[in-house]
């Protein structure tokens, strides 16, 4: 990507302005909170996990466009997946935003819009916060997730 403007692709802007699954989840049986002190992003991820499958996932919080879009895409991506599949997707997304490895994704994978984040190290923490918060919720950790 040639400049920061390219990073904010239409899909990222759309997910930021109109985040999917943005609400508290009343029947959540797992929950985690995350914070990115560098940017001020704050995310709460709610999960309903039954028989090792994510039946529902939502999030709430405030953050920059990349953070909110990442959380929105994450909820769509892991919904109805097993917890193991969600952990595998975390690894793929982490590799994507830290190293730019989009080759592990299908061409139509929504996560691929974040491939340029690796070129902007200060934005990596924004993109990965929701995913680290998801991982914490899946593992049942109680401490607030921080990108620091």
Write the layout of secondary structure elements.
Layout: H1 4-7, H2 10-17, E1 30-36, E2 41-50, E3 53-62, H3 65-78, H4 83-99, H5 121-139, E4 145-146
Parallel strand pairs: 1-4
Antiparallel strand pairs: 1-2, 2-3
Please explain how this structure is put together.
By secondary structure, the chain is of the alpha+beta class. It has a single domain, classed as Sufe protein. Chain: A. It contains 5 helices and 4 strands. Strands 3-2-1-4 form a 4-stranded mixed beta sheet, with helices on one face. The model has no long low-confidence stretch (mean pLDDT 89).
For the record, what CATH class applies?
Alpha Beta
H/E series: HHEEEHHHE
Question: Looking across the biggest beta sheet, what order are the strands in?
Answer: 3-2-1-4
Measured on Cα atoms, how large is the radius of gyration?
14 Å
Task: Outline the low-pLDDT stretches.
Answer: none
Number of domains: 1
Number of strands: 4
* Class based on secondary structure composition and strand pairing: alpha+beta
Number of helix segments?
A: 5
The termini sit apart by 26 Å
Second CATH tier, the architecture? Alpha-Beta Complex
Helicity level, as a percent range?
Answer: 40-55%
CATH topology: Sufe protein. Chain: A
Percent of sequence in beta strands: 15-25%
How would you sum up the major sheet?
4 strands, mixed
Given the C-alpha coordinates, what overall shape results? globular
Calculate the mean pLDDT score and round it: 89
